[in-house]
C-alpha cells in the first residue's frame, strides 16, 4: 500500500482558451511551463540563482542584485551565465576604453605588480602579502605607490639653499671665551643685548644703533643676560651672584636681587617669574612682583647650572648642568620630574619645540659629540630640524640667539665677533635677494 503522506506531483495542461485572464492580455502570449517533480525540487534548492524571464529584479539599497553584478572585474566567479559572450563589433571602442580604465583602477587599488585577471583565474580580491615601503609623495587617492601608470605626481622640491657666510659681522671686544656663560640674547623688540666684560651693550637691529646699558665696575663682570618676554626689561647675572633688572628704554636699573653665592651664568623668563642658575649648583625662582628676592629654590644638579629654558606654555623648565645632566621641572615642584643622563659633557644648549608640545632638544659640550653647535634654537618658521655647516668663526662658537621674526641667528665666539646668518628666510625673501644682508653687509663694532 502506498504511503499517504507522499503523493506524486501532477501537473495538467490547461488550454489557454479555458484560462480566466483579463481581456486586455493577449492569450497567445501566455505560456505555462510543465514542471516535473525533479524540476520543482531543483528550483527550490537553487532559488537564489534562478532568474525569472518574466520580470526584472530591482536591487535593494543595501543588498545588490547578483544578476547585475560584474564579478569578472574582481576575479569572482558567478553562477549566473554571462548575458553575452560575443559583444557587437560596433562596441569595440567602448570595450577598449573599459579595459584601459579597469587596468588603471586595478593598478591604483592593488599595485602596479598585480597580474591581470586573465593571468590569474580564481584568485580572490583580498590576500595577504608582505608589506612594502611606500612613498608619501603620490597624489593618487588610492595609495602612495611611487609609480602609477597615468597618474601624475607632484614635482620633487629642490633643497633650500642656506647661505654659508654671514651677511654682517660685529666686532665684540672683551667677549669672554667661557662655555658656561650666556652673554647674548635677542628681544621681541628686535634689540640684541651683549655682555662685554663688565658692561652690557644694546644693538638695535632696525637702526644699527648701539647703546651702553650699564657698567658693573672693575670688581664685577657680566655672566648672563636675558630679555623678558615683552622685550622692555633685561635681566643681568653677575659674577658676584646677583641678578639685576634693567629698564632698557630708560637705561635705568629697577631692582637688584641676591640669593646665589657664586656667579649667575644662566637666566630664563616665564611671564613675571625669573629663573636663575648659578655655579653654586642651585636654581632660584624669582617673582619680580614679590618683595622677596626668590620664592623657591630648586636643587638637584651636582655642578654648575649653565643652561635654562622655559617651555612655550610656561609649564616646564628645563635645566642643564656641568654634571652632564638634563632635568625638567614643573611650576609646583622643587625636585625634577624628569631626569636625563645620556650626555657625557656639560649640557648648555636647550630648546623647546614651538610646534610640538613636550618636545625638547639638548646639546652637550665638545666631549659629548651629540651636537655640532654649542648653541641650539628652534625657529618658528620651520617644523623640521635643519642641519647646515656655517663657516666664518676662527674660534669655538659659544653663544647663539635668534631674531624675533625667526629668520636670522647671531653667533658669538671666542674670536670676539658676532656674526649674523640668514638661515631661516621666509618664503617671500627666498625669491629675492636678502634686503637685510645687502643693506647691513660690512663689519662694524658693537661699542
**Structural class designation:** mainly beta
Question: Helix amount, in percent?
Answer: under 10%
**Integer-rounded radius of gyration:** 40 Å
Q: Examine the secondary-structure arrangement and name the CATH architecture of the domain at 168-445.
A: 7 Propeller
- What is the succession of H and E elements? HHEEEEEEEEEEEEEEEEEEEEEEHHE
> How are the strands ordered across the major sheet?
20-21-22-1-23
Number of helices: 4
CATH superfamily of the domain at 168-445: YVTN repeat-like/Quinoprotein amine dehydrogenase
Per the principal axes of the C-alpha atoms, what is the gross shape? elongated
Overall mean pLDDT stands at 75
Percent of residues in beta strands: 25-35%
Strands, total number: 23
The level-1 CATH class of the domain at 168-445: Mainly Beta
Which fold name fills CATH's third level, the topology of the domain at 168-445?
Methylamine Dehydrogenase, Chain H
Low-pLDDT residue intervals, each spanning 5 or more residues: 1-14, 124-151, 371-376, 431-440
**How is the biggest beta sheet arranged?**
5 strands, mixed
Write up this protein.
Belongs to the WD repeat CDC20/Fizzy family. The protein is mainly beta. The protein has a domain at 168-445: YVTN repeat-like/Quinoprotein amine dehydrogenase (Methylamine Dehydrogenase, Chain H). 9% of the residues lie in helices and 27% in strands. The protein is built from four helices and 23 strands. It has helices spanning 37-45, 92-110, 427-430, 435-440; strands at residues 168-171, 184-186, 191-196, 199-204, 210-215, 222-227, 233-238, 243-247, 252-257, 264-270, 273-278, 282-287, 296-299, 305-310, 316-321, 326-330, 338-340, 347-352, 360-364, 397-402, 409-413, 417-421, 443-445. The strands form six sheets. It has a five-stranded mixed beta sheet, with no helix packed on it. It is elongated.
